């Protein structure tokens, strides 16, 4: 990309040394051709056409990775002889490959997104469906290996793709919409699995579960192929006038037309991300969040059951906390976009989650503990999308934004290993140790967010001293080109 410049620790100021960067900082004059209302209409069309599709696909991904727990209860454990730690390894192998194949995120920049998206959706749907025919633990291990690989290319890839369609003051809420599919799926996953496996078909109930939840994913790959645009300018649902608007938005964002952003990446741009303290802080926050993010949906029904509820009631009672998390994720990311104070929002959500876990670890009263599940769920599921927003905001090129998504997942998804192992049955019914670990990590996430904010404030003050103080150029009235790429007008979002 011609507008992506190699950077190091002092990225924002070093990137402007080259005279060729002048194009990025002149008044491009494109903004005056449309009104705020027209741009708002374009953004809403992007939301309805893109976010709806991405949201549904992520719900399917969440169901396909998590239904193994329901399948285990429905007879899979007996049929595949899941004795000892065999079931635990089926969970672990998914996240091992999720980490190993994380660099596949960059495929979304190299190849047309509609091809990458359709291929990834079909392949993970195919693997999820084929589980219905497995007859051994070894076979299921192999399938979970590939399921983790293909899902690793979807969710992080979509988060990266959103940065090609939305400006930096819009991206956080869209991350929230996308990530909120997970808690929403949790509200009905148990009931759906129960409905599928409670019948008496000629096929084993757990096999039927994989078929019923896997086949729709493969079918949705057709929609992904036809409805994921390769760039805003190629979106079929936009008129020619609206495409002019997205062309101007791309100039404001990175200083080039949207089509030029797909087709390759620079290794020189990618490597500095891995020594960037800001990216590592985001990765550590993501690690803390993923410990609880991966474990809570799996173990929440078990925690409720051990409070004294029946298994059926526990499944039903897990829905309200998950739904509150869905709402809280949307609300907090919207606030972070409007205020551009992402670190403060992450601090609040992390503390809310940490308080919930402390109550779960220390209180015996059932009603109070159930209330604490609302706090834990809301804090955990809203922290993750806010971390994604600040990660994308504070890298100054498309390649570096992609690299940062890769890095935080390489670090963060390791937290999923810990999350799957901190609630052993020997801790029942209180799971004090597991709750304490989750609480400690959520509070540590708040501390990391504070550290990140202080670092970003220092970086911005240094840039102000070097180039002079600038007004806030993150709003939709700015006419400066390439405001999201490194340059004298680039400032970090706090």
Protein architecture, described:
The chain is mainly α. Helix content is 69%, strand content 0%. The chain is globular. It starts with 10 loop residues before the first helix and ends in a 27-residue tail after the last helix. The model is unreliable at 1-32 and 472-478 (pLDDT under 50).
By DSSP (H or I, 4+ residues per run), the number of helices equals 21
DSSP strand content: under 5%
Give start-end ranges of low-pLDDT stretches: 1-32, 472-478
Instruction: Describe the main β-sheet briefly.
Output: none
Rounded to the nearest angstrom, the distance between the terminal CA atoms is 27 Å
Q: Give a count of the beta strands, DSSP E runs of length 2 or more.
A: 0
Helix-strand category: mainly alpha
Helix content: 55-70%
Mean pLDDT over the full residue set? 85
How would the global form be characterised?
globular
The secondary-structure element order is HHHHHHHHHHHHHHHHHHHHH
Radius of gyration: 23 Å
Give a nutshell description of this structure.
The protein is an all-alpha fold.
Secondary-structure blueprint of this entry?
Blueprint: H1 11-14, H2 36-66, H3 68-79, H4 86-100, H5 107-110, H6 113-130, H7 137-152, H8 155-162, H9 171-179, H10 181-197, H11 205-227, H12 240-254, H13 267-270, H14 277-305, H15 311-317, H16 319-339, H17 342-362, H18 366-393, H19 398-412, H20 414-419, H21 432-467
Helix pairs in contact: 2-6, 2-9, 2-10, 2-11, 3-11, 4-7, 6-7, 6-11, 8-19, 9-16, 9-18, 10-16, 14-15, 14-18, 14-19, 14-21, 16-17, 16-18, 17-18, 17-21, 18-19
